[in-house]
Amino acid sequence: MSDTAAPLTQDRQKLEMAALSAPAVFFTVAMIAFPVVYTIWLGFQTFSSTGKQSFAGLANYSKLISDYEFWHGLWITIALFVLSLVLQLVFGVWLALVLFNAKRLPGILRSLFISPFMMPPVVAGMMWLVILDPSLGAANYILQSLGLPPSDWLASPTWVIPTVALIDSWQWTPYVALIVLGGLQSLPPSVYEAAQIDGASPLKTFQRITLPLLLPTIVTAAILRSVDLLRFFDIIYITTQGGPGNASNTLNIYGFRVGFEFFNIGYASALMLTLTAIVFGAVLAFNRLRGAVAW
Amino acid sequence: MNDAANTDRWIRWLNTVQLVLAGMIIMAPTVWMVLSSFKPSFEVTAYPPTLVFSPTLENYAELTRTTPFLSYALNSLIVTVGSTALGLLFGIPAAFAVSWTRITWPAILTLAARMAPGTLFLLPWYVMFRQIGMIGSYTALILSHAVITLPIVIWVLLPSFDAIPRSVFEAAQVDGCSVTRILWRIAMPLVASGIAVSAILAFVFSWNYFLFALVLSNGDTKTLIAAAFNFIGEGSTQWGALMAAATLIALPPLVLAALVQRWLVSGLTLGAVKG
């Protein structure tokens, strides 16, 4: 590039680049940024039963603080999040180690392993609804043949959240495992060899060497799962719609129902903005954690 | 010496047992779903459940007879293909520009949209689309699903574009190629496989997406996923037809995912992990 022509081509290039990203930016502003600003505004409105709209100040937010269903939903959201995340990380790391030790993973087997999280969560819900049916389902038959008491699963107010966590973990544990497997494969083999020469037991090697080195990858997997888990919707809505009673009424389910079943758009907006703040707060916190465990 | 070899074999055997166990837990529910879809109606709800039966297609016939399954499937296809095309149309040039200029905020903006709960957008969309009479239109559904596909396309393609050596572009620039021409003639052919992976992932996630169509579709434009309630029915035990519906809905994403399984993880983590 000659010196005299450079400024002109650089300006032109900048303009062309801006033109290339313009459609995506414009689309995102129109479909996301503007609607979110609109939601913030809607959060300050009330809608009467006739659909008339009026300014309500912080009424929706003060209602939120005194709303039992909100706190219940927050509790359910956090319980489901913690339970599912722990299950998926523990079994995901285990499965990753098993896959890693198997050395070779044929394509067909990998296709089978990814099948749970590639199928629609709604289909997973339909499928488990049949398997977990309290009276005719295969799950209770298996429990009973093993001499264990049957469960009401999704129909039980006590067990519905653990059951939903189990279904989601069935779907996403292989995903966590494949991420962790990627982390395992990128670790330098020399550290294991050194540990072996020092005569460290496999358990000690895992605890002292593998796990600390894997932590950044595990936290990455935790971030990716948290985003989905905190806004949990599909499986619950297709199987229980928040029930029995309100036992699986997560914040996202509650917000959706307030908005589209009771048509209280203003209050639903306040609920969803709160949930969004929780999701982004969790991502920021995990990001900090990832910085702390980086090596 | 012999002892060490024995322990080694034992460990490998133990590992294989765990692998088979994990594989069975992962596969069993899906296998059960597919098997149930081929069971005669009196055997689907048999208790104890049966594993041996004479397979039948009656559930699939029942499904197409009692529900507009094919028109739901067509709706799903229109929305999914439309939103995937839109995601590629906007996402490919944007990913190229972000990779070239290293100005990353457009990519991060779309990612933030991927992280927020969908209901956050659905509330204002519902109000706005209702005002302009677009509830139930394919346009509203395609636009909403493009919010899913666009970040997938951008973030799957970014590493592919980043991997092209700069010198390739600089040489083309010296020859007087415009940026658009470089993208179209040089960069896109080089990342063709990345584009294929991003298109398949976008298709799968758009096909699987539940929430938006639940509110933005109507009886004529309902997608398969949003119609799932119709298949479940109120307190009925038409499990055969339900499992036939579930099998058919899951089939397109599973087949497509199998095609790109090797590149799937790095694509799904939006570049956070190199798989």
Task: Give an overview of the whole structure.
- The complex is a heterodimer of chains A (295) and B (275).
- Chain A has 295 residues and is mainly α.
- Chain A folds into two domains: 5-55, no CATH class; 68-293, MetI-like fold (Orthogonal Bundle), CATH 1.10.3720.
- Chain A is built from twelve helices and two strands; from the N terminus they run αββααααααααααα.
- Chain A has helices at 6-42, 59-65, 68-101, 107-118, 121-131, 138-145, 160-185, 190-197, 202-230, 234-239, 251-260, 265-293, and strands at residues 45-47, 53-55.
- Chain A has a two-stranded antiparallel ribbon with strand order 1-2.
- In chain A, a hairpin with a 5-residue loop joins strand 1 (45-47) and strand 2.
- Chain B has 275 residues and is an all-alpha fold.
- Helix content of chain B is 76%, strand content 0%.
- In chain B, helix 1 packs across helix 13, helix 7 (138-162) packs antiparallel against helix 10 and helix 10 (192-208) packs antiparallel against helix 13.
- Chain B is flat and about 75 Å long.
Essential attributes:
heterodimer, A: 295 residues, mainly alpha, MetI-like fold, 2 domains, two-stranded antiparallel ribbon, 74% helix, 2% strand, B: 275 residues, 14 helices, 0% strand
